[in-house]
Amino acid sequence: MNTLLLPMFKKKYALVGSTLLAMGLLFSTSHVSAHWAYISNEKDDTVSVIDTETNEVIKTIEVGERPRGVTLSHDYSRLFICASDSDTVQVMMINNDSIEFELPSGADPEQFALHPDNRHLYIANEDDAIATVVDIETRQVVSQIDVGVEPEGMAVSHNGKYAIVTSETSNMAHWIDTETHTIVANTLVDQRPRDAEFSLDDTELWVSSEIGGTVSIIDTDSKKIKQVISFKIPGISKDRIQPVGMELTSDGKTAFVALGPSNHIAVIDRTTMSVTDYILVGRRVWHMALTPEEDKLYTTNGVSGDVTLVDVKTRKAIKSIKVGRYPWGVAILPKDKIPQ
Amino acid sequence: MGVVRSLFTAVVLCVAPISLLANTESPELVVDILYIEQRIERPPVLSNLVTWPEDDGEQGAILGISDNNTTGRFLGQKYTLQTLIFDIDEPSDKRDEQIYKALSAGSLLVVANLPAHDLINITSLPAASDDLFFNAQSSAVELRNEQCLSNVLHTIPSRIMHSDALIQYFTKKRWKNIFLIEGNGSGDQALAEAMRYSINKFNLKIVEDKQWIENADMRRNASNEVPVFTQARKYDAVVVTDETRDFAQYIPYNTWLPRPVTGSAGLMPVTWSPVIEQWGAAQLQSRFSKIAERPMTDRDYSNWAAVRAIGEAVTRTNTTHAPAIRDYLLSDEFELAGFKGTPLSFRSWNGQMRQPIQLVHSRAVVASAPIEGFLHPVTELDTLGYDKGDSQCQAFQ
């Protein structure tokens, strides 16, 4: 494990000494300032939980087969897990880590997004070219919508009006009206679109294209692309720069883009729409999540089997945290929601 | 007997209620693709395990149509596949008459599964001059070189792309001294020629260059025959060229020296293989086996890639006019996600589709070429096969 400690940590440890450190471990159940990061491990059928203060794995939970997308309910009482090879979405209780029930998801669910109503889950069914809408309360499929080949990325706008699904082989972002559950528009993007994210004010939709090597920024009103961002890392072949997961900060200033097998994430200044930094993380970086304060970013690195902690302010990778095999998705539970 | 079939009924089932979609106000665009195949005789082989699917290639084109239609339903496009398949015993004059008639119907998009000489004859017809052909079967090097034709693009790699891929890996592994075994078929000789070209290009050495013995009884006696045949003082690896899989599978573990066997057995360069799972390929594999009920082959993949390339060009240019499709495919604009880790495109100097070549054994991918470290000023994919400077193709200038 490649451990890089923050200078701050070093100082703290030096001051308190090993006795207090041992005590700290004894009392590790009280999480005053730590959030929990839930990481799905695609090839281990587990979810690892990382304490964001100690940045250690505090528990590993067994879940269904091939867990990929993970997301928390808006009240943070449940974790939804796409168990792709079990063909189900599992609903895990945060208070006791048990699977409360499973949702009918359609075959091979990969990613999903939760509507702001905290009730409707939009799921991409990769093998069947459909998107499934599930009502979490009645546990019923509300609708299935035909989409393009290999639907992958899912997003719901913050105002709840649109659900987006990207289809990897059709190279489109499909705009689904969440009231009628019909496709109202399709935006063609570059090859193999993966992730979709709305800006906080919903005026922009960001779509990453893995094989095209670009991120398209689409205007929500016109559904047309207004800007395309490409990437260039010195010494790394263009073919290895494959944009996947994205995170947008809530202040509207910054975007982070995971660049897959180039083992870097890009930092985009959204005021100038230019790439300002590339940060080296683990191998084959998939997805990312920001802490609630947006001061730390956690990346899942599929091939190296670890999670990289990035300090948002300094744009530096701080630490690698070993998790299970092929970590894929990540969701962060705020500290005040952690069960006591 | 010529078989003319239409997938039109299958296609209609896939078309979604387009009227619901806001941005498909343009009238429906129908894209007809003609699929021509001359079934070929496979010579008898020693092993009962070696079989070739009857619908090899065709199923790849069918999947390509299905993928295009799933996308096309959002864009007001409808793709159909008209198939012209000729059996081995079809008289060539009757066949040519049918093909000539089909090609006279204006500017066509044609996926061709033909041996090299038939491909040249047919695509040189005056009626074919405004059509665009995709060669999805023949890996003959001369079709990309001195015999290239401007209305033919190649989605299947040339033999030299395969041999370059393998020999790049040899270079990385420092397997410098090579024992080459050439089979007796014409394809085997052509593949051996490609291997010699690549070995020379990457500055490795052939220490033995032998023609396979025809009267060996490999099924019962491989452990006696092969050690004697492969006796030599020193070699780092064996390269076998045996495209019909007549004897190659009996070479591994029987060589005089304990060395890796490559080429047509052991470590093999492939266009596609069921063992490819990375780069999202598992999804393509499962979509294919769902419709074809068998694994996807090199030829299936090349047919799929041809139909998908057409789909991508139509989507981006909004035309079905063959010369316009050709211009777009040969431009820098075109790229296609092909489940091999890097986008596929076409070489503007000979119409060959650029693509990675995987090196596999029967259960796993060993490496993907271009092998890291083989650099190129434009794209590393052009380290496989004839690069612009080496090409003798004139028709594309």
What does this structure look like?
The complex is a heterodimer of chains A (340) and B (397). Chain A is mostly beta strands and 340 residues long. Chain A has one domain: YVTN repeat-like/Quinoprotein amine dehydrogenase (Methylamine Dehydrogenase, Chain H). In chain A, 6% of the residues lie in helices and 50% in strands. Chain A has one helix and 28 strands. In chain A, the strands form seven sheets. Chain A has a four-stranded antiparallel sheet with strand order 3-2-1-28, with no helix packed on it. A four-stranded antiparallel sheet of chain A has the order 4-5-6-7, with no helix packed on it. In chain A, a hairpin with a 4-residue loop joins β2 (46-51) and β3. The longest helix of chain A has 20 residues, at 7-26. Chain B is α/β, with parallel strands linked by helices. Chain B has two domains: 2-157 and 273-355, Rossmann fold; 160-270, Rossmann fold (3-Layer(aba) Sandwich), CATH 3.40.50.2300. In chain B, the strands form four sheets. A six-stranded mixed sheet of chain B has the order 1-3-2-4-5-6, with helices on both faces. In chain B, strands 8-7-9-10 form a four-stranded parallel sheet, with helices on one face. A three-stranded antiparallel sheet of chain B has the order 11-14-15, with helices on one face. In chain B, α6 links the parallel β7 (177-182) and β8 (205-211). Chain B is globular and about 65 Å long. The two termini of chain B are 39 Å apart. Classes of the chains: A mainly beta (340), B alpha/beta (397).
